[in-house]
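Please check what follows.
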Amino acid sequence: MGYDYRKAHLCTVRASRYVIPNHESYSLGKLTKALGINLVDRHRAKGDAEATAHLFTLLHQKDSKGLQTFIQEEVNPKILHPNLDLEILEEIPNKPGVYKFYNDTNQLIYIGKSKHIRKRIEQHLKNSKTLKGSIMRQEIARIEFELTGSELIALLFESELIKVHKPIYNRALRKSTFAYGLFDYEDQAGYLQLYVDKINKTSSAPITTFTTKREANEYIFGLIEKHQLCHKLCSLEKTSSSCFGYQVRKCHGACVGIESPESYNERVSQLINLLTFDDDNFFIVENGRDKREKSVIWIENGSYRGFGFVPYYTIKQAHRNWLRYIELHPEDKDARTILRYYLRKNSETLKIPYSG
C-alpha cells in the first residue's frame, strides 16, 4: 500500500507540472491548497492518498489528452531503467549545477551541467531523438547532482570531472562547443591583424572563442564599431585599396598606411588584453547555492586557481579571508577557454581586483 501510494503520488505531482505549468510550488500541500482541494490528515497515508486522487481527477478534467500524453511519454516504465528512483527528481531544484548518471553496476556513465539541472535531467529521461541518447536513457539507474550557484562554476567543474572520470557517454558524445577562435598576427607592414578560424589541435591559443562562425563574425563587426578598427585588417574585406570603413570615415586609414602601425596596434593590443587578462589578479563573484553565500572564482596572474563558496557575512572582509573558502582546481586549455568565453558573453559579471 505504502509503496504503491508513493508511486501514484510522485506520478501525479509530475503530471501536474506537465498539465498545469508555472505554479510556484508542486508540493502536495501547496498545490492542493492553490487548487482548492481540501487536504485532511496531512502526512498520513489515507489523507495524502485521497488528496492525490482528487488532484488526479482535476488534472483529467482540465486536460485529459495532455494527461494521457504525459502517461504515455513520461511514465511508461519500458523506456527507463527499473532501478531508477524517480522520486529523486522531486529533490532536484532548477538551479545551476552538475549532475551524474550511473548504470546498474554503479559505473559513472555521463556527467552534465546546466543552469537548470532539473529541466536538463528531465530532457535526458525523455530523449528519443538520437540513438545514443535513447540507449543512455535506458541505462540510467541512479542520479547524483551538485549545486554550484554559478553557471561558470558548473562549466568549469563539469570539464574537470569529465577529464578525471572519462564517462563512456561523454566520450561518445564529445564535440567541442567552441569550434571557432579569434587569432592575431603581425603583417609585413607591422600592423596587428585579427582573423577568425576553426580551432584544431595545431592551433595556437585563441584570443577568445565562439560556438559558430556567424557568432564570430557578428562579434568582430561589434569590435570594429566600438574600437574603430579596420575591416580589411580584421579579415572581413579582401581589397587592394582602402576598406569601406575608411570611405565612410569610420576607419582611420590603417588599410592604406595613413594611420601608423603604432597607433592602430595600440587599440588592438588594448582589446586583446581586455579579452585575455593574462597578467590580471581578480575574483569573479556570482550567486551562491543559496542566499547565505556567494560563489567566488579565483584568477591569479591570468590563471584559474579554483572556486569556493564564501559566506555572505564575510564578502565585505579583506580578500585574503576569502581564500580559505576556495578549493584549488587544475587549470588547462579548456578552463581558460571557458573563462574567456563566459566573461566575454557576460560582460556584467562582477570582477573584483585582487593584489594579494
